[in-house]
Amino acid sequence: MRRLSSFAPLAAVLAFSAAPAMAEPALISVSLGPDLQDRTEELGAREVQEQADRLAELVGRALAREGEFDGARIELVLTDLRPNRPTFQQMADRPGLDGHRSRSIGGAAIEGRITTSDGRVVPVRYDWFSSSLADVRGLNTWSDADRAYRRLAVNLADGRYVTR
């Protein structure tokens, strides 16, 4: 009897390793549209790249919860990006800007496509910008852009691909 009880942990490990593998998560790539590439020097290359990475992160997180796009390839293009406050590059280029008191209407526009694991191609389009300074709620430079990313991620997870 003692001999059989020593095999119990081994049996548990083998049982879990024999379970079916999890589906491959969606592959998400974010590139910059031509107009945004032209503005990258003005906004700061590092900050623009951080925003592209943030978009991929939020979309990936939202889709991982749903699992609808397991094995899909999601290609997003950040076509427009506007900060709510001056970026570090803008403040370096114009020393008179006040990074704390300067506010503007921000947001982001995203286009792209989803190629599902079965080969179906679905277009993606979303944009969100504050309509007035009264709508600007966040304190950081990219509050409205982040709001646009989150809303796109929720829309994709809910099956809404083209809006506005």
Observed structural traits:
four-stranded mixed beta sheet; alpha+beta; 164 residues
Oligomeric state as shown: single chain
Helix fraction, binned, reads 40-55%
**What coarse outline follows from CA principal-axis ratios?**
elongated
Q: Helix-strand pattern, N to C?
A: HHEHHEHEEH
Widest β-sheet, arrangement of strands: 1-2-3-4
Helix and strand content put the structural class at alpha+beta
Cα distance, first to last residue? 68 Å
Counting DSSP E segments of at least 2 residues, the number of strands comes to: 4
Biggest beta-sheet profile:
4 strands, mixed
Report the mean per-residue pLDDT as an integer.
Answer: 83
Task: Note down, in words, how this protein is organized.
By secondary structure, this protein is an alpha+beta fold. It has helices spanning 2-5, 8-17, 34-43, 45-66, 88-93, 143-157, and strands at residues 27-32, 73-82, 107-115, 121-129. It has a four-stranded mixed sheet with strand order 1-2-3-4. Strand 3 (107-115) and strand 4 form a beta hairpin. The longest helix has 22 residues, at 45-66.
